Amino acid sequence: MALTQLHDHSRDTRQPVYAPFALGFRPFFLAAGLAGLALMALWLGIWTGVLTPAPYFDVINWHAHEMLFGYTAAVIAGFLLTAVRNWSGVDTLNGAPLAALAGLWLLGRTLFFVPALPAWTIAAVDLVFLPALALSLAGPIFASPNKANRVLLLLLGVMFTANALMHLQALGLTATTARPGILLMLDTVLLLILMITGRVLPFFTEAVLACSECRRSRLIELATFATLLGMLAADVGGWPRAAGVMALAAALVQLVRVAGWIKPGIGSLPILLVLYVAYAWVVVGLLLKGLADLGLLAPNLALHALTIGVIGGFTLGMMARVALGHTGRMMQSARLTNLGFVLLNLGALVRIFPPLLLPEQYSLWVVLSGLLWIGAFAAFVWVYAPVLVRTRVDGKPG
């Protein structure tokens, strides 16, 4: 099956299980929503000096690690465990094994705060999650006739390597591997997002708007992955100018790519519009990264365009869409969900552009952006927690 097949294909042969662990999106999307709230609240408490940071990572590296390997990894797990089942026709984890995998993820988030726990224990528990996820997906992926899906296992392996680079520095075994680990994870997540959206977003657009086919170009697809892989290699290799050039090239390629998918009526459906807004952040974020790597802009501003705008926008939008589709609901987001979409994008804007104009108020912008992010995820949890823990409205399994 193609990657475009993200609508539900429930199989009635599947044995009924406890609803919150019936399919991967349920526990992991709920975990991601709660993590979006809790991790940002902790970060704001640490940033303002109200809370004391955990001793394992330094303050900045903990924040980066948890937003990438905590929040983002949870969304990736929920999405892949659900989508791979559709693509392959083979059941992925459910029931007790799924609960165990979710528990492993949760344990990795909490051990940082356990006093006097050996550092190697923290590292070992956190590092085992991504390989465990890959192992659980390997059978269904290799059973699928679409061999292209096997690249997902490679990407999970690269993410594990990025996590290991961060832990090596935290353990004192290396001096400067945390930053390359952050960039490697960020670039790999961007690659995964653009790989998935290249199949899903045109399909979703055509389906919900009943419009003509979105324009696709093999040359643009090849350029997408060539420029991103070049940027990734330059980031990991420590060649910022080369990374900047590749980022600028990638921004241009993505502008051309998404232009072929835009159809009249996109703005009338918030659950579709939010994905296109996130794609706009791809172009803006890559442009800002290119300028930053060339020494023309502060790097942290570009970083947050890619994390809040791109990763935050795509993950929130996709969680909302997948949760509706896989619980048998209408593909229409609630007003509170739409407010969450707005708050998240306002948070991205506040985190990036006001600091350029009023840098002396930088701490204010950080806090305001964080509060807007919290508001967005509070809206998501309020609307979707009941959806994620209850059985499908159409009575089907999953």
From TrEMBL:
Q: Does the keyword S-adenosyl-L-methionine apply?
A: no
| Alphabetical list of Pfam families matching this protein | NnrS
Looking at the UniProt entry, the stretches that span the membrane are 21-47, 67-84, 96-114, 120-139, 151-170, 182-201, 222-239, 245-262, 269-289, 301-324, 336-358, 364-389
Q: Keyword check for Glycosyltransferase, yes or no.
A: no
Alphabetical keyword list: Membrane, Transmembrane, Transmembrane helix
Q: Which top-rank group of organisms is this from?
A: Bacteria
**Database matches in InterPro entries:** NnrS
Q: Any idea what this protein is called? A: Uncharacterized protein involved in response to NO
